[in-house]
Amino acid sequence: MIRIGVLGLQGAFREHIRSVEASGAEGIIIKRVEQLNDIDGLIIPGGESTTMRRLIDKYEFLEPLRQFGKQGKPIFGTCAGMILLASEIAGFDHHHLGLMDIKVERNAFGRQRESFEADLDIKGVAEAYNAVFIRAPYILETGAGVDVLASYNDRIVLAQQGQYLACAFHPELTDDHRLTAHFVTMVEESKKTLAS
Amino acid sequence: MSRLGTDRVKRGMAEMQKGGVIMDVVNAEQAKIAEEAGAVAVMALERVPSDIRAAGGVARMADPTITEEVLNAVSIPVMAKARIGHIVEARVLEAMGVDYIDESEVLTPADDIYHINKRDFTVPFVCGCRDLGEATRRIGEGASMLRTKGEPGTGNIVEAVNHIRKVQSQISHLRSLSEDEVMVYAKENGAPFEILLQIREEGRLPVVNFAAGGVATPSDAALMMQLGADGVFVGSGIFKSDNPEKFARAIVEATTHYEDYKLIGELSKGLGTAMTGIEMSTLTPADRMADRSQ
Q1: What ipTM describes this predicted complex?
Q2: Count of domains in chain A?
Q3: Residue B2, Cβ neighbours under 10 Å: how many?
Q4: Whether A115 contacts chain B with CB within 8 A
Q5: pLDDT category, A145, cuts 50, 70, 90?
Q6: What local confidence, expressed as pLDDT, does residue B54 receive?
Q7: Cα A79 from chain centroid?
């Protein structure tokens, strides 16, 4: 069975586990670096990116997470997780993991009162997908090889680059598991490739 | 077409705070210390609860200058307190762009009968509760997040412990009831029937429930997590301690790793004096903030 970890330092990780399990894979909460060896793919959940980064540093997760991605194992970053994956963050000198060739802007739609739900068409994955945006970021620019999968009002909110998937919204907060299922498929394929 | 202020958006915001610490701050400098230490949000106030206690008189919404200063200082969410039932203070905070409003018993209630109808607002609310009746009434009014009331500004964890245990044991009891017993339970506890049915079905509250009111040490924070809190509010504890930076970081880590006792022991070393606590029996009924408005 496919085993998917959800980084469990802070944020909505239990909801992701539920969504992973509903998509037919096994979900594991990752709190220690050595657990990364046991999983085929990883979700970095929504939460507060500043808080998560501090805990990532404190528990020396930064390099192991980069290595995990560079081995070819899929990583799905949602909301704060997307900020952690990005190679560039508008207004900041440093990136976090820097694995994905995207430039993101934090809290780009505004504060909490501007947070919203909207229906998205996701290329090759789903139509009328109920997306929940909470103090959400979006993608300002994408590099070569980044496939834009969904936009909202001309702003990029979901993109894929090889084994990396990043979205600005929260797929774990609804019962619509189509996007998580897409990630599970990515992990299944990568597991086959890596095994051969 | 986008939908603003839906339950999912309002409750979801609190979901993102889970496993984190929300810290009371009274200025931009403290807000930055909190953010740097890893707080998931800050609560902008004019005075922390222990100072409100000391000052006496009527405690109101903070001067908007302070809230604005904090909003501009950090990129994490900013919460602020409005008096219970004070619709206008809440509207002012919403208009300023505050991310979450705490309709709080720490301030002097403006209405000792009715709470704010929180469904009317786009901004989400957090409210205090001591038991399942109070929790479900607040949810019924539209609260998107709950916290224990505890006894604010005392540095004494006993009331927060009582409140979280009470809510948990009532949820267990509710789950053991047959559906036809729930209506009487609703009547006896002044709890909305439909919300009770939902809790009975799912085995948990439909919103996030944090601990608040008396958390003074890293161990206190970890204790509340172990008792089932989704996260922790720390009021007077941090900036009334000798070394706020160190203290704030220790509380954040103890909340994340609440079952790692060796780590919590390490974190607790040399933190200096925690805030001076108050024993519950020395409080007069008028001093007890948790009893304000039910």
Answers
A1: 0.91
A2: 1
A3: 16
A4: yes
A5: very high
A6: 84
A7: 7
- In chain B, the residue whose alpha carbon lies closest to the alpha carbon of A91 is B75
Q: What is the pTM of this model?
A: 0.93
Residue B260: helix, strand or coil by DSSP? coil
Q: Quick check: A113 contacting B, CB < 8 Å?
A: yes
**Domain CATH code at residue A125:** 3.40.50.880
Task: Read off the tokens for B85.
Answer: 């039932």
According to the model, what pLDDT value does residue A117 have? Answer: 97
Q: How confident is the model at residue B51 (pLDDT cuts 50, 70, 90)?
A: confident
**C-beta atoms of A10 and B2 within 8 A:** no
- Which residues between 58 and 97 in chain A have a beta carbon less than 8 angstroms from any beta carbon of chain B? 58, 79-80
Q: What is the pLDDT of residues B265-283, one digit of tens each?
A: 999 998 877 677 788 778 8
Q: Is B104 helix (H, G, I), strand (E, B) or coil?
A: strand
Residues of A in contact with B1 (CB under 8 A): 118-119
Q: Per the structure block, which two tokens stand in for B51?
A: 């100072």
Residue A164 belongs to domain spanning: 3-195
Would you call B9 and A48 a contact, using CB atoms and an 8 Å cutoff? no
Which residues sit opposite B4 in a β-bridge?
Answer: A116
User: Using an 8 Å Cβ cutoff, are B198 and B206 in contact?
Assistant: yes
- Quick check: is A79 catalytic? yes
Q: How far is A98 from chain B (nearest CA, A)?
A: 20
Distance CA A108, CA A134 (A): 10
| Residue A192 burial (C-beta neighbours within 10 Å; 0-12, 13-18, 19+) | exposed
Residues of B with CB under 8 A from a CB of A: 1-6, 8-9, 12-13, 15-20, 35, 37-41, 75-77, 94, 97, 99-100, 122-124, 252-253, 256-257
